[in-house]
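User: What would this chain look like folded?
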Amino acid sequence: MSSYIIDVTSENFNDAVLSNSHKGPVMVNYWAENAGPCLRLWPVLEKLANDYNGQFLLVNIDTGKEKRLAQDYGVNSVPTVKLFINGEVIDQIHGYDSADSFKKMLDKHLARESDKALAAAVAEYQKGNKEVAFEQLGKQVFIDPENPRILLTLTKLLMKEEAYDQAYALLEKTPLKDENEEAAVLMTNALFLSTVQQADELDALEKQLEENPDDKDILFNICSQRMMQSNYTAAMDILLKIIKLDYSWREGIASLCLRGLFIMLGKENPIVIEYRQKLIDQQAH
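Assistant: Here's the prediction, encoded as structure tokens.
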């Protein structure tokens, strides 16, 4: 096997995976000897490791022999491939998939030439040269649209400048909002903050709603105000109502915001569990 591919057991997992992931990406392939999809996936991963020539380390864990390692990381089926960076799982693919899918996962997280330009732009921003920083980041978005870190950094800096409309528009135009959880959360927050900037006060909105209880614009304005109060249940109730009234309103923005809130609060949060079920029940009817 290549020097970029190793077999790992519980005895050397910490060094081989966790420690090494602080030096660079470690892709962990959880497999089993008698699973056909694992055998089909292996040549895909092996070729990938060789093609990338040391940009990541490929680790194989035999779940038949290392059941505890599989359990510790929630591996219930094989093959499962998890990407570790800085000691944490930052991406994963379940089941057999194409080489392109794994390349896409890797390329999201591997350092790229444009990361140097990104670092330079951030340095300019920190020195107070904000116009220069935004100009450089804007150029890099077009030069390397495949680097999500550029778009996410530009969005964060726009939000820091309270340019919420611009931040929202930047992400709304890209597929990143559907592919990247951080982007989904940023876009949701930017939209809520932008809405609050332009909306009436809460008392006035609630009076307007009494006269027009199904007005989706008023509902969304109130939802945004509730978010600023960290009243997540009230905000989610309103989003569910908008979805029920018209799922396609503003190209399904209520559904997208609900997803952003679910991600932000975490899938194990009791509120998320409750409202995910409410959404399922509502869709069933």
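The CA atoms of residues 114 and 143 lie 8 Å apart. If you want, I can go into more detail on any region.
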